[in-house]
Design goal:
Layout (H helix, E strand, L loop, with lengths): L5 E5 L6 H7 L2 E3 L2 E4 L2 E4 L6 H7 L6 E3 L3 H13 L4 E6 L7 H9 L6 E6 L5 H16 L3 H10 L4 E6 L4 H5 L9 H6 L1 E7 L5 E8 L1 H15 L5 E8 L2 H14 L3 E8 L2 H7 L3 E8 L2
Parallel strand pairs: 1-2, 1-6, 6-7, 11-12
Antiparallel strand pairs: 3-4, 3-5, 8-9, 8-13, 9-10, 11-13
Helix pairs in contact: 2-11, 3-4, 9-10
């Protein structure tokens, strides 16, 4: 019989609602802030709303605070859970990991594990999905947590970005080359490094070249084995559909398990025109 293990993520993990409901995954919402206007990510604001207010209004985002994390954990406890795995977006991009880790230290009567995915969006969410399936298969808490540490580098996400303006405005530029893209109109492909910080993978001139290069990178770096894919877009549904049609040709043994628009909190920092693909070795 499968152990009773709760999975906790924040909305920056970008897991689709149908999968969160199917596997009972608990979610803490980030917030999008326009001055005195505060919205809950994925609840009362969409990415499309954020895009519609660009470029005149660029909001800020905030992570769940210590009290909010504790309130969520209490709800989990009330449902009878005494084992909890929290899957967090990269500590190099967000404070969620440290906040959750601090909050869970107080729950000495629970077995807890906080995992720093060193990634973002479905690069994080796909770990939560794997964890849910592992619980379903009957893996124990200790087996799953040990496996997650071993799988740290099994998730890789690449983003084609139409602009770096919003990444720069939000202070998330990391090791991404910003000035070149601004001056020359060059389009970047970025990813997260081993520290979970954005870096430049490639720089190209023009959207068509950028998306073609993204596909080449995916083909070159796709690992062997049971590969899951997640396709994300930020106000670029048409371009994402074009990528979707090409994925079976370049990655014939991979399975597309998620295809979605990114959540509002991610739209804030990436702007319109984003295409992202996550590759995950599910073995």
């Amino acid at each position: 019989m499968a152990e009773k293990i709760a999975i906790l993520v924040d909305s920056g993990s970008d897991l689709p609602e149908n999968l969160r409901r199917k596997y009972g995954i608990w979610t803490m919402n980030l917030r999008i802030i326009y001055g005195k206007e505060v919205y809950e990510d994925g609840t009362d604001i969409t990415a499309q709303t954020v895009y519609s207010r660009f470029p005149q209004q660029i909001p800020k985002t905030s992570t769940p605070n210590l009290m909010e994390v504790k309130e969520t954990v209490e709800k989990i406890r009330q449902k009878g859970y005494r084992k909890l795995i929290a899957i967090c977006i990269s500590s190099g991009l967000s404070g969620t990991f440290n906040t959750v880790k601090t909050a869970l230290r107080e729950y000495t009567d629970m077995e807890t594990f906080v995992f720093d995915s060193k990634s973002i969006s479905m690069g994080t969410g796909i770990f939560a999905l794997w964890t849910a399936k592992a619980i379903e298969k009957g893996m124990s808490f200790s087996e799953i947590t040990a496996a997650l540490l071993h799988k740290q580098n099994d998730s890789k996400v690449y983003y084609y970005m139409d602009t770096l303006d919003y990444l720069r405005a939000g202070g998330r530029i990391g090791k991404v080359t910003g000035l070149i893209g601004k001056v020359l109109g060059i389009k970047p492909i970025i990813s997260c490094n081993e520290e979970g910080i954005y870096y430049t993978v490639s720089l190209l001139r023009g959207k068509k070249s950028g998306i073609q290069r993204l596909l080449e990178i995916l083909k070159k770096h796709c690992p062997r084995g049971n590969i899951w894919l997640a396709l994300m877009n930020g106000d670029a549904a048409k371009e994402a559909d074009n990528v979707r049609r090409q994925l079976p040709k370049i990655l014939p043994n991979a399975k597309l398990i998620v295809n979605k628009a990114i959540t509002a909190s991610l739209a804030v920092h990436t702007g319109p025109g984003l295409i992202g693909v996550c590759m995950f070795c599910a073995d």
